Amino acid sequence: xxxxxxxxxxxxxxxxxxxxxxxxxxxxxxxxxxxxxxxxxxxxxxxxxxxxxxxxxxxxxxxxxxxxxxxxxxxxxxxxxxxxxxxxxxxxxxxxxxxxxxxxxxxxxxxxxxxxxxxxxxxxxxxxxxxxxxxxxxxxxxxxxxxxxxxxxxxxxxxxxxxxxxxxxxxxxxxxxxxxxxxxxxxxxxxxxxxxxxxxxxxxxxxxxxxxxxxxxxxxxxxxxxxxxxxxxxxxxxxxxxxxxxxxxxxxxxxxxxxxxxxxxxxxxxxxxxxxxxxxxxxxxxxxxxxxxxxxxxxxxxxxxxxxxxxxxxxxxxxx
Amino acid sequence: xxxxxxxxxxxxxxxxxxxxxxxxxxxxxxxxxxxxxxxxxxxxxxxxxxxxxxxxxxxxxxxxxxxxxxxxxxxxxxxxxxxxxxxxxxxxxxxxxxxxxxxxxxxxxxxxxxxxxxxxxxxxxxxxxxxxxxxxxxxxxxxxxxxxxxxxxxxxxxxxxxxxxxxxxxxxxxxxxxxxxxxxxxxxxxxxxxxxxxxxxxxxxxxxxxxxxxxxxxxxxxxxxxxxxxxxxxxxxxxxxxxxxxxxxxxxxxxxxxxxxxxxxxxxxxxxxxxxxxxxxxxxxxxx
Amino acid sequence: xxxxxxxxxxxxxxxxxxxxxxxxxxxxxxxxxxxxxxxxxxxxxxxxxxxxxxxxxxxxxxxxxxxxxxxxxxxxxxxxxxxxxxxxxxxxxxxxxxxxxxxxxxxxxxxxxxxxxxxxxxxxxxxxxxxxxxxxxxxxxxxxxxxxxxxxxxxxxxxxxxxxxxxxxxxxxxxxxxxxxxxxxxxxxxxxxxxxxxxxxxxxxxxxxxxxxxxxxxxxxxxxxxxxxxxxxxxxxxxxxxxxxxxxxxxxxxxxx
Lengths: 320, 288, 257
What we know:
The structure holds three protein chains of three kinds.
Chain A (H helix, E strand, L loop, with lengths): L1 H16 L6 H26 L8 H14 L8 H23 L4 H21 L9 E2 L19 H24 L1 H18 L4 H27 L1 E2 L6 H13 L5 H21 L3 H15 L6 H11 L6
Antiparallel strand pairs in A: 1-2
Helix pairs in contact in A: 2-6, 2-8, 2-9, 2-10, 3-4, 3-5, 3-8, 4-8, 6-7, 6-8, 7-8, 9-10, 10-11
Chain B lengths: L2 H32 L6 H19 L2 H22 L9 H23 L15 E3 L5 E3 H23 L1 H11 L1 H6 L4 H27 L5 H16 L4 H21 L4 H15 L9
Antiparallel strand pairs in B: 1-2
Chain C lengths: L7 E12 L2 E12 L3 E5 L6 H9 L6 E6 L2 E2 L5 H7 L1 E4 L11 H10 L16 H13 L15 H14 L4 E5 L7 H14 L4 E6 L11 E6 L2 E6 L1 H6 L1 H7 L9
Parallel strand pairs in C: 3-8, 3-9, 6-7, 7-8
Antiparallel strand pairs in C: 1-2, 1-4, 4-5, 9-10
Helix pairs in contact in C: 3-4, 3-5, 4-5
């Protein structure tokens, strides 16, 4: 247990040092990776812990991002905390609404209908006057972190922005860890293992799944909120199924049911994307090839990689 | 809306629905018989359309393109099954989703590499390029009627093969109990390959038929895929009949939606799906 | 709550279940009384599984009523019936193989007092569910293996785990689907002892193929054939019944006595 904690603290310390390097490109890239890490953790709650494979999780990410963009006043700073509350509330409510429909299905159906509802959301922002259509919406001025006059930090400074993201990542991680150890979390894990048995033991699993789905949507909203703030530009692509596919890939790369792992999965994905893109503009071809090869040739699939690496690292050493 | 316009929209709905049925029938067969969720199915449609474009440009005729394209599709479908999909039968849904997602990326980028990202038109063969007058002002393109007719013929053929032939019987049996079918000495691997190739070819053919109407463009596969999913959800996995009914419902809802409520026409299909989910979450014609 | 000996807890009145054209159960009557073990017997395909599924809420009856302590529960699903006091174990082992024995049973116990909103308190620190789980595990005779990963238990021990899980839900009525299946004679004997100990305060329904081990503990036996009740009564009556002997002739089960 202790070595795990040390590993986490070291990783955190390394991440905290990034803005100190002064390299603004990598700081922004890492901020993006951390944001995707939050997004991946939120999906892991559904896929890795509750066993609900959602292929439409990008909808809640995008809805939160659009909430920020649409509620931000045109040319002055909005309030960070109000925007955080509003965007998370919107994405959570959207997830609650969709959950009521999609949780009536299972298996293949569930995957399809989550995708369909995400497409619906995509359509709403792409084709109706609500968003700016395919052109997207800008957040022209970074929000102000003011709480009744006191301004703890300034988001126009890249370092502050980065640390804000990092702190939220840590908070989301701690929050999810706690929840997973609670009664509610144990029920979710039970549902993944054997939902039928949970029902015959007296659990109304629909309600629990809906709770997980809503929670996951709200946390994806935290990621979407951060995205809008860091990048200042929001488009319907954020709700596309490519986005949903990518985050699912991160969860699988990271080893489902492992919160730190999926953050690492986000790092792995972004790294691959950057590397492949530096080789060719058709980087998606390479990415697709890697994915297909991994599923074909890794017994146990991609999720086995972390286990294998772990075993390789532990080598002849002590077991935990 | 006067009668002629109504007739036009009805014919359009039929034609759109029937094309969607071709695509969705392959999807639901593969779901129902092999239990695989295949996100790349929309890409098959796209491949068919691009194949029609490339072949008709090369040969100067859409007939030749389809004549060559269908056997090519069957062969390519069988190849895909052997190389990739046959490994998915024993894997869980997540791995199927992932691998087929990877395949979409590959197909899209290959298309971009080989044919580029431009939008292309495909010419309607001269014989079918005319229109039938419906009123003083309105007429209906013959080609669209031809497309509908071809789809109906294929639907009947599909029904016949599945319900009335030995192959169809083996296909339906493979649906229920793989080990039992194998014990009967039927080569289940061959059956699966045939079904998959058939599904691929149906989707590709739909793409070929649609290419003069909708043109050929990147991302044409994505939209069709999602609509196909909606159709399978509404109609019930594994039910070809359900796919037909659902495809027609979607065809009508979408076409009339564009005319009656254009602002939200893209949403109409999803609203129908949501309603079905509330009423019958396993699809209207759930198998079994 | 009164604790009358032999009070009728669960009663199924003429329950029928059809699957399309197939009638799996026709007008079946079952009454379960506290302090008794009622055995549902019959050859393969007799409809025993369908019957127990209707009692547990896994399958709604096509016709007929089911009442628990006088209350009509026909429309309740499995989760609701569990909350009312009906517990079920399954023919194919239906546990959480990656969890420990303790966690399997604790999860069952937790179902009695669900507080999903308490997201900041750890489930493993919840004394009441842990105590209840430990007590149930002891009662089921699995105390020595409480920290084992349940997937690694022997077949017989997994059956005991199933019993423990049902106990942890405070079930007044226990529906046990072939709890002795696949067990050797020593394990069977152990399980029968457990059932004898549990009998006085509960109503137990056992679905079984083979009468050998169960005869010692049965108070009433209902024999089903082709979806219908052939005969129902005390073991001696069933043993002597010609109709029952004939029903078993020609089936691959032997009705040994």
